[in-house]
Amino acid sequence: MKFILQRKHFRDLSEQEIVALAISSEEDDARIYRSYAETLRADFPASAKVFDGMAQEEDVHRARLIALHEQRFGSVIPLIRREHVAGYFARRPVWLVENLGIDRIREEAEMMEHDAEQFYLAAAARCKDAPTRKLLGDLAAAEAVHGVRAVELEHTHLTDDIRETERAVSRRQFVLTWVQPGLAGLMDGSVSTLAPIFATAFATQDTWTTFLVGLAASVGAGISMGFTEAASDDGELSGRGSPIKRGLASGVMTTVGGLGHALPYLIPDFWTATIIAFAVVFAELWAIAWIQNRFMDTPFFRAAFQVVLGGSLVLAAGILIGSG
Questions:
Q1: How many domains is the chain built from?
Q2: ∠260-194-229 over CA atoms, to 5°?
Q3: Which of 11, 44, 171, 250 could covalently link to 181 via disulfide, CB atoms 3.0 to 4.6 Å apart?
Q4: How far apart are CA 128 and CA 257, in angstroms?
Q5: CB-based burial label for 214 (10 Å; 0-12, 13-18, 19+)
Q6: Run of H or E including 93
């Protein structure tokens, strides 16, 4: 709170500070675009060239602003950045956006250009010096047409074949990094916990004890699957992506798969909880079959037969053991 109170409001900035803020903003945006380019270069080289071109555009803007500052205020540029100004737009961390895929990176770039345009319009309205106001207005117009420039760069570097290739690479990376580990975790969590949960349920007919067993089995399996997936492959040679992401996907989905049919046992009545748990198991198994069909190109009825048959056998084993 103290830091927020110490920040300046945009309306209180001098013209020199406005120009200095514009310079630092252009520097930051150029770095962001170059970071996106480096992130994409290995798998999406054509899109990386688009972001290289956008970074060069920001360099041109920065050079024009520095020349204006030297002419009006001298060569010493005050240190003022976005975080020093209350209410000024902030950029999302590069590490957060670059992990969300190429389409999300493009959306972020569009928002960056829009934010920059709004800043230059507001800055131009605050300045009384004619050359400064003209330059800021020109930069606002330039940011407004950056979308057009980005399209031109895309037409230059992204042919239809390259776009199709990038879509295929993006989908494959998503499947390898998130879907496969998550699906493996969901299958393990949903199927492997059936026997202990329903064995406990029919052996004790105590819903609270059954829930605790299900919770322990689900969390334990999630931790085990998460660490196993993360440690199995660093992704460098296989191209499967970050082991942390894969471990997270596998661990979370394993836990969710087990908790799905454990949570109904929070209901005190045994048979009500059990019937709901049966329905949840059925939904989980069909969800697994759908994911296999949607992302792994497995024929739906074959996937459903395999998953439902396997799950039914494990469920039956748990019930028989618990009833024995």
A1: 2
A2: 75
A3: 250
A4: 63
A5: buried
A6: none
Token digits of residue 178: 């998130």
pTM (global) more than 0.70: no
Domain range enclosing 55: 2-158
Whether the per-residue pLDDT at 271 is higher than 90: the answer is yes
| CA proximity to 184, closest of 237, 229, 243 | 229
Same domain, 96 and 213: no
Q: Considering 129, 158, 187, which residue would you say is the last residue of a domain?
A: 158
Q: What b/e readout covers 46-85, taking b as 16+ CB neighbours within 10 angstroms?
A: bbbbbbbbbbebbbebbebbbebbeeebeeebbebeeebb
198/140 same-domain check:
no
Q: Please state the length of the chain.
A: 324
Q: Quick one: pLDDT at residue 280?
A: 92
The CA-atom distances, in angstroms, between 266 and each of 192, 197, 214, 256, 260 are 20, 13, 11, 16, 12
Contact between 109 and 33 (Cβ < 8 Å):
yes
Q: What is the CATH number of the domain that holds 107?
A: 1.20.1260.10
Claim to verify: residue 133 and residue 181 sit in the same structural domain:
no
pLDDT in tens, 90-137: 776 666 565 656 777 777 777 888 788 888 888 888 888 888 888 888
